[in-house]
Design a protein that fits this description.
279 residues; mainly alpha; two-stranded antiparallel ribbon; 13 helices
């Protein structure tokens, strides 16, 4: 893990603030045919909004501490605070005197419903979901092992190491988990495949949220992240794919476990009524 000075000027995928002003997307967006470069605070604000849109952060969830978010995003507190202030003004998060920020009650209505509408009318198919993730994510980690820059490999390893320090806080670890998988997506240098991977990651988030409190689930993910990160950093695509496959199986099995537990709880509350099924 780098020192605070090492982390301060680093952005997603290993980009520095100086590189941010020189590079094209993903840290820029196209509007009207012209490239508008984003400030670091805008990039962080967009990242947090994406977490709310995907359901990783929901209404009334507490955000990780500023220190934890700085660690996960690899930035200093100044741009982070600017991003948090902007989201507060937008009404997406609330500031608590002397405490952590919280996702506002308005956030879901504004952001989450239109984003997830395509999945609201069907039951969550665990098997189908993880077949799709296997097809996409395993290729992403293979490409990342072959194509990642030195800075991207360092970023992936750093996030895996930082996970050890955040595993006691479920909200903070959820944020780091998103960043870890996103760092692999970016390092694959295939924007289309990375976009598909992000979409698949966001499917079934409710089951993964329920899984985090289960004893040992986060600890096992932390160990698997470190194994994957080490193999990607060493440029061993076949071994990295095998390690990632084991990680997906861990996530799939915990999703099935939480679905079964939820169905049992529903049955005990409402005898004779069925619930949704993990296929």
């Amino acid at each position: 893990m780098g020192t605070a000075e090492d982390i301060e000027d680093r952005l997603f995928g290993g980009l520095t603030l100086e590189q941010l002003s020189e590079n094209e997307p993903p840290n820029s967006i196209l509007r009207g045919g012209a490239i508008e470069r984003l400030s670091l605070a805008e990039v962080v604000a967009n990242r947090l909004m994406a977490l709310i849109k995907s359901g990783t952060l929901r209404a009334r969830d507490r955000l990780p501490t500023e220190a934890q978010m700085s660690l996960a995003f690899g930035i200093s507190r100044a741009p982070l605070r600017e991003a948090l202030k902007a989201l507060t003004v937008m009404g997406l998060i609330d500031s608590r005197q002397g405490g952590r920020y919280r996702v506002s009650d308005l956030s879901s209505a504004r952001l989450l419903a239109p984003f997830n509408v395509s999945f609201s009318a069907v039951d969550y198919d665990v098997q189908g979901h993880f077949e799709a993730r296997s097809a996409v994510d395993l290729e992403l980690v293979r490409l990342a092992s072959l194509r990642a820059t030195d800075a991207e490999r360092s970023r992936i390893v750093e996030l895996a190491i930082d996970g050890r320090n955040l595993q006691g806080d479920q909200s903070a670890f959820r944020l780091l988990d998103v960043e870890f998988h996103e760092s692999i997506n970016v390092a694959a240098h295939n924007p289309l495949l990375a976009t598909i991977g992000r979409g698949l990651y966001n499917v079934g988030l409710e089951e993964r949220r329920r899984a985090f409190p289960v004893p040992g689930v986060i600890n096992k993910s932390v160990k698997q992240h470190f194994e994957i990160a080490t193999l990607v950093a060493e440029g061993k695509p076949d071994e990295a794919v095998d390690a990632y496959r084991r990680h997906l199986e861990h996530v799939r099995s915990t999703a099935l476990f939480t679905i079964a537990a939820n169905l049992k709880e529903q049955g005990e509350r409402e005898p004779g009524k069925g619930g949704r099924r993990g296929k």
